[in-house]
Design a protein that fits this description.
single chain; eight-stranded mixed beta sheet; alpha+beta; binds iron/sulfur cluster; 2 domains; globular
Length: 330
């Protein structure tokens, strides 16, 4: 089988050439070794290493942004960016998260501020033998435009959409990769995440059947320090707050990520707070993705990206909570 294989050097050349038409974003390494999504050349390319820590959907839904400008002349929405983005570094789970928030921001009301960035953006997933400590990253399949499947060193390139296919046409030369390599990676990839999904489904069932008592949520919330890291890292957390700032000749309306773990999350102007207890807020963090969203969207909205379990300083990310819940009540 003939497939396109790129060394990291060739990949860099391809990405550099794509800058003519795209605002290219890639995983780069900061001075302290942290991997973040940045512009090509902003730091050493750091594609290998697994999911980046930051909320990857922040590319299209940043921590803070202006949503409306108001001055003497009236209201203005922010302009679309001059070039669409080409973003490398999504894992399969990240691409699933993105697919969900695309639906979320287009449900009933289309969020133009989000789609100004998201429309025409090219998503490039990274998978194969390039996770943290050589761990295998699940192969994405067609939930992205292009995929770089690492064989341990180089990248096997696959394109799924028209835009992805036209981009790889520009790369030109093809090389041969042994068929077993790709087949073996795909076979191993198919075995991944089954256990995690079973656990989420079991926890979801318990919540939908209302089999988890308050004493469980009390014991979890006693361990929460409300640092908000879980929400700020989660690619499917979409809650935000709005505030106004003067801009010299008028005001700008901004939005900023919110966190359901904060006391003021749902507090109303009257002072009434329907989520005034930590127990309720902790329950909501898990219940929302595993039960409320099942009712609303027809599926769980946690895609096991692993971020909330990685960042929670007290060990109560979603998978840890589900494990405890299923052990106790399953
Ligand atoms: S694992 Fe945690 S951070 Fe990732 S999608 Fe699920 S809830 Fe969000
Ligand atoms: S990361 Fe952990 S401690 Fe921090 S708010 Fe989330 S659940 Fe609570």
């Amino acid at each position: 089988m003939k497939v396109l294989v790129l060394t990291e050097q060739k990949l860099m050349e391809f990405l550099a050439s794509a800058r003519t038409a795209y605002d290219v974003r890639v995983p780069v390494s900061l001075h302290d070794g942290t991997r973040v999504i940045g512009r090509l050349g902003e730091g050493p390319l750091a594609i290998k290493g697994g999911a980046i820590n930051q909320k990857i959907t922040s590319i299209f839904f940043p921590h803070m942004e202006t949503v409306l400008k108001c001055s003497n002349g009236g209201f203005e929405s922010p302009e679309p960016a001059p070039k669409p983005m080409l973003v490398v570094g999504f894992t399969k789970q990240d691409a699933d998260c993105l697919e969900f928030i695309d639906r979320f921001y287009n449900d009933k009301f289309r969020d133009d501020v989000y789609f100004n960035k998201r429309d025409n953006a090219v998503i490039v997933c990274v998978s194969g033998r390039c996770g943290a400590n050589g761990k295998l990253l699940k192969v994405s399949g067609d939930n992205c435009d292009m995929e770089l499947i690492c064989d341990g060193q180089d990248y096997i390139v696959r394109a799924y959409t028209d835009v992805g296919k036209s981009l790889i046409e520009d790369i030109g030369s093809t090389e041969i990769v042994p068929e077993e390599t790709l087949e073996q990676i795909e076979k191993e990839s198919d075995q991944l995440c089954v256990e995690g999904l079973d656990l989420l489904n079991a926890a979801s069932k318990l919540l939908l059947e209302d089999k988890v008592p308050d004493e469980f949520w009390q014991s979890i919330s006693d361990r929460c320090i409300a640092c908000t890291s879980c929400n700020l890292a989660c690619p499917t957390c979409t809650c935000f707050d709005v505030f106004d700032r003067t801009n010299g000749c008028g005001i700008d309306r901004w939005r900023i990520w919110d966190s359901c773990q904060l006391d003021g999350f749902m507090r109303e102007a009257s002072g009434h707070n329907p989520m005034g207890q930590e127990l309720i807020r902790t329950r909501r963090r898990i219940h929302h993705k595993l039960a409320a969203d099942v009712t609303r969207w027809g599926h769980i909205t946690c895609y096991q990206c692993g971020r909330c379990d990685n960042v929670c300083p007290t060990g109560i990310g979603i998978m840890s909570v589900c494990k405890e819940m299923v052990e106790k009540y399953g």
